[in-house]
Design goal:
By secondary structure, the protein is of the alpha/beta class. The strands form three sheets. It has a five-stranded parallel beta sheet with strand order 2-1-3-4-5. Strands 6-7-8-9 form a four-stranded antiparallel beta sheet, covered by helices on one side. Strands 10-12-11-13 form a four-stranded antiparallel beta sheet. It has helices at 11-14, 36-39, 53-63, 99-110, 146-156, 165-173, 182-195; strands at residues 2-6, 24-28, 44-48, 71-74, 91-93, 121-123, 126-129, 134-137, 140-141, 162-164, 202-205, 209-212, 222-223. Helix 5 crosses helix 6.
Length: 225
């Protein structure tokens, strides 16, 4: 593979295992902006953060726009807490990575993703795109927290069904959640407020739980709280 390493020292010092592999490795100063045309000539970009994680982050952020070449950041274990999705990297390597591990990660970068994004959930005017983490109500974007999004996503994906609070806790919060079922009521109330005039999409079935887009029952059986 043709690799470009953004570093201020010999790549063999940052990632010794790489020196034992038969790849063509070129270097460029960490502080130098890499043009899109140059990056496109390489199979992958290595960003050296072994000496200065902050400079590596700046280099990664500078690569995010207009450059599709996969990038791997090299970070020591003590700097791993600084790594976030904002860096825009495809892989991470520790300086102590073995040649076998380095080779595996490089091969994985070459393999195109075969999975397709999950289909959007559409029900009663609500459209939820899980791949982009967006939810719309009749075209209007909904500003939801993560758990509100997850709860609406689950309910809208199962229209007409009624779930107990315990079921919703298990499906949305997970089986390891130790809070009470009251948190379900709180999130439902917040969701209804954000649905506005369409708050009735989430119905309360007395003694059971909540459902989405159900046919209205008589007032003695169904209420909205």
């Amino acid at each position: 593979m043709q690799l470009l390493c953004l570093t201020d020292r010999d790549p063999a010092e940052s990632l010794p295992g790489l020196d034992l592999l038969p790849h063509d490795v070129r270097t460029s100063p960490l502080s130098l902006r890499v043009p899109e045309t140059l990056a496109a000539r390489y199979d992958a970009l290595l960003i050296d953060g072994t000496l200065d994680a902050r400079r590596a982050r700046a280099a990664c952020m500078g690569l995010k726009t207009g450059i599709d070449t996969p990038r791997i950041v090299i970070l020591p274990e003590v700097a791993l807490t600084a790594l976030t999705v904002e860096w825009g990297v495809s892989e991470l390597l520790l300086p102590t990575a073995s040649p076998a591990e380095i080779e595996l990660r490089l091969r994985l970068l070459e393999q195109p993703a075969t999975h397709s994004p999950p289909p959007a959930v559409q029900s009663a005017g609500v459209v939820i795109d899980e791949s982009n983490f967006t939810a719309r109500l009749f075209g209007r974007p909904l500003d939801l927290t993560y758990k509100e999004f997850e709860l609406l996503h689950f309910l809208a994906a199962n229209p007409g069904r009624v779930f107990t609070r315990d079921q919703l806790l298990s499906e949305v919060w997970g089986t390891d959640y130790f809070g009470g079922t009251r948190t379900v009521d709180v999130h439902v109330r917040r969701l209804r407020a954000k649905l506005g005039d369409h708050e009735g999409l989430i119905s309360t079935v007395r003694g059971v739980g909540y459902g989405f887009a159900r046919a209205r029952l008589d007032d003695d059986e169904e209420t909205f709280t």
